[in-house]
Amino acid sequence: MNTTDPILLHVEDLHTFFYTKSGIIKAVNGIDFLVQKGKTVGLVGESGCGKSVTALSIIRLVQSPGRVIKGRIFFENRNLLDLDEQEMRHIRGNRISMIFQEPMTSLNPVHCIGDQISEAIWLHQGLSKRKAMDLTVEMLIKVGISDPKKRIREYPHQMSGGMRQRVMIAMALSCNPKMIIADEPTTALDVTIQAQILDLMDKLRRDIGVSILLITHDLGIVAEMAHSVIVMYAGKIVEYADSLVFFDEPKHPYTLGLLGSIPKMDGPIPHNKILSAIPGVVPNLLELPEGCSFQSRCPIAFDLCKKEEPLLFEVGSNHLVRCWQFGRT
Fold first, then answer.
1. How confident is the model at residue 1 (pLDDT cuts 50, 70, 90)?
2. Where are the beta strands (DSSP E) in the chain?
3. For residue 255, what is the domain's CATH number?
4. Engineering a disulfide at 226: which of 42, 89, 119, 291 sits with its beta carbon 3.0 to 4.6 angstroms away?
5. Which sign, positive or negative, has the C-alpha torsion 89, 95, 100, 103?
6. 232 and 195: one domain?
7. Do 198 and 146 lie in a common domain?
8. Total structural domains within the chain
9. What pTM did the predictor assign?
10. Is the pLDDT of residue 191 over 90?
11. CA end-to-end distance (rounded Å), the chain
12. pLDDT digit string (tens) for 223-248?
């Protein structure tokens, strides 16, 4: 990452908790990161680590019983948490768009896709419905959908999964956003369509300069797309690095475990080779352990890990790690 690139999004000390009958779930528990203009940031981690809640917190769509209780989210130098709902609606879907992992749950099944995309355009851009529909056709062409004048009259169930995801991308880009949050955008797609969607997203980033926060559990996608990588575990960031550094010099034991569980395809595969796995399970966010939240699964944990929560230590240029192994003097 070029540290001179202007910052589009800056998240500071974000806390998002869910207040349930069983107790307080600290889904996002004090995270800081930034997204630069025209760059892609990969946000990775196991299910339940807080990735999607982070995204929903940014666009202020966290549903009850959850709420953002602390922090600041600066977008284009404005704290989104200070805006009223009307101001936020102007930003959501207009300046910041979101692509969800399953388009069938995001697209309305009883409205044709042309109406769904054009509605966002005329609401946010103030165009007439006719001009909004013309722009919808242009957006479908841009995302590689053939015969768009026919497609605008079709319903979501008449399209394949890859086609629906292209529609979601067209909708996300229709108002010329400065940033796209993509939450597992290719999970439901086969590998061929997945590659096409990722290529499309990266091409659009290069062509129009949109920034992307890419949320995924797939480190292969991160290696291909991201300029920098954030690793979350139990609601906290445990490692942050430029992409090349992240894959060449990973530091946190959790990161090493994630990378070690990926099959290697760049050499001969040993007979009966068993992939390594991270022992144990993610801790219950209602009952987080004292000290480091990863300590029960960590192969190098020592006494301090069980007593005090580690800080984020700087281990290199733009490289931070939450581990006491790097804070010892």
1. very low
2. 7-20, 23-36, 40-44, 66-75, 78-79, 96-99, 179-183, 211-216, 228-233, 236-242, 312-316, 319-322
3. 3.40.50.300
4. 42
5. positive
6. yes
7. no
8. 2
9. 0.89
10. no
11. 29
12. 999 999 999 999 999 999 999 999 99
